[in-house]
UniProtKB/TrEMBL annotation:
Residues annotated as domain Mannitol dehydrogenase C-terminal: 285-466
Domain annotation Mannitol dehydrogenase N-terminal: ranges: 28-276
Native source species: Thalassococcus lentus
SUPFAM superfamilies: 6-phosphogluconate dehydrogenase C-terminal domain-like (SSF48179), NAD(P)-binding Rossmann-fold domains (SSF51735)
Protein name stated in the entry: Mannitol dehydrogenase family protein
Length: 487
């Protein structure tokens, strides 16, 4: 059955469908960067509220700012913006259709439709999942990068912006001119202090052209910090076939694990859905949850993915079934990451690590090593290097994280140990590969990438440890190097 509003009543009984009247839904949220994760996570929480008869005036309008978003828009509009979520758990498979999204804006140069929608009084939250690398931050300082080419363009062309932040500023300018309050801007990306980072990008860009607007945004707007968690692989042909076997023809189904977590600061300026009624955590201490998740899970993904790519393993679950990598993963975590993670209510770091190991080992979640390793220049910068800096500041050993960085450098040579090619997998792949190849004979070249490592190249203990591990990886191979570390 081709997925659509009219088909919902005819889908198999085992598939849970919206019980609310979708014709009654009214928009309240614009979500920019509407990929698989959003549909399996934030859209699901809202859908669960709607199943309770609540939040019917908070429906989602999808949006994107890049041309490639148009393909997803076409797919979703053809099926009335419905999505099939397929939970893949070792205990069984479950499917549900969610309907919390009602439209997807046209993708146009200058972002006119997006700006107009965000400026509408009905929109009270603008949320984003634009990836860790989608924020314009100076790698060395972590501050807003006002010199970036796209940011300079938006400052010079405020009515025809290229970036999501330029579009947000343009919409807020219209709201202020029309006497409307600002919307809450909610980052759902894996960044420590993501709300604070989003505020710096929006207010920083606004201040380049209109300081009074920047002050209004800063003083009356809201940028909650949040932490999101759910493993959501890319959609495969096999998943589309699985949905068909279950009775649904969905052009863009989403698979996910059974675990979800969403932690938010309650600092919204224009109302919000009661997400806590369906399991979200509302707290004044998002940072502790963020630190635990970003360092143990997201950082742990990089620990596994780079080694797995070198060893020609396909998925994270394959890595967790490998003869060496589970022990390697746990030792890296215990030696290099857990000492810099604090407990949160009802969960200490060691218990959280055990939970992550169980989730990563789920054989039904086909989360590819390639997907997890993508954009290492953003992910290592955001997930691994802050922990490394904490270790250096405390005077502790840096051997564990130096090995993690050496594995990334080895991966970026572009060849696996079986001789097969690793296709470009980073926006900065050419520069990374060039540095990785030079580092085979002079390891410090890798660390001289200042946009990634900054002053870390001056830390003698780290430089020495990194060089030792990278030399071993090239001379002895990955297996022998991991064995030496484990011993």
């Amino acid at each position: 059955m081709k997925l659509s509003d009219s088909a919902l009543s005819r889908l198999p009984d085992a598939i849970e469908c919206p019980r609310y009247d979708r014709s009654r839904l009214r928009p309240g949220i614009v979500h920019i960067g509407l990929g698989n994760f959003h549909r399996a996570h934030q859209a699901w929480y809202l859908h669960r509220l709607m199943q309770k008869g609540q939040a019917l005036d908070w429906a989602i309008i999808g949006a994107g700012v890049r041309p490639y978003d148009a393909k997803m828009r076409d797919k979703l509009l053809e099926q009335d913006c419905l999505t099939t979520l397929i939970e893949l758990d070792p205990k069984g498979t479950r499917a549900e259709v969610i309907g919390s999204m009602i439209d997807y804006l046209p993708i146009e140069e200058g972002n006119g439709p997006l700006i107009a929608q965000m400026a509408d009084a009905s929109i009270r939250i603008v949320a984003l999942t634009v990836t860790e690398g989608g924020y314009f931050l100076d790698a060395a300082t972590g501050d807003f990068d006002a010199d970036h080419e796209d940011i300079r363009h938006d400052a010079q062309n405020p009515e025809q912006p290229r970036t999501v932040f330029g579009a947000i500023v343009a919409a807020l300018r219209l709201r202020r001119a029309n006497g409307l309050p600002p919307f809450t801007a909610l980052s759902c990306d894996n960044l420590q202090g993501n709300g604070e980072i989003l505020r710096s990008c929006v207010v920083g860009l606004a201040s380049m052209t209109d300081p009074e607007l920047a002050e209004w945004i800063d003083s009356t707007g809201a940028f909650p910090n949040s932490m999101v968690d759910c493993i959501v692989p890319a959609t495969s042909d096999e998943l589309i076939e699985l949905a068909q076997d279950m009775g649904i023809e969905d052009a863009a189904p989403v698979s996910h694990e059974s675990f979800r977590q969403w932690v938010l600061e309650d600092v919204f300026c224009n109302g919000r859905p009661a997400w806590e009624a369906v399991g979200a955590t509302i707290t004044g201490d998002v940072h502790s949850y963020e630190t635990m998740k970003i360092r143990v899970l997201n950082g742990g993904h990089q620990v596994l993915a780079n080694a797995g790519e070198i060893l020609s393993l396909d998925t994270i679950a394959d890595c967790m079934q490998d003869e060496q990598l589970p022990a390697f993963f746990r030792k890296i975590q215990q030696d290099g990451i857990l000492p810099y993670v604090s407990a949160v209510p009802e969960m200490d770091p060691s218990d959280y690590l055990t939970l992550i190991e169980e989730r990563f080992a789920n054989p039904r979640i086909h989360d590819s090593v390639r997907r997890v390793a993508f954009d290492g220049s953003s992910r290592h910068t955001g997930f691994i290097l802050p922990v490394l800096r904490d270790a250096i500041a405390s005077g502790a050993s840096v051997q564990a994280l130096a090995l993690v960085e050496a594995l990334w450098a080895r991966m970026c040579t572009g060849l696996r140990e079986d001789g097969s090619e690793i296709e470009p997998n980073d926006p900065n792949w050419d520069a990374l590969q060039a540095a990785a190849l030079k580092a085979k004979t002079n390891p410090v070249v890798w660390l001289e990438q200042s946009e990634i490592y900054g002053a870390l190249v001056q830390e003698e203990a780290f430089v020495a440890a990194f060089g030792g591990w990278l030399t071993k990886l090239h001379d002895q191979g990955c297996r022998a190097t991991l064995s030496e570390y484990l011993s």
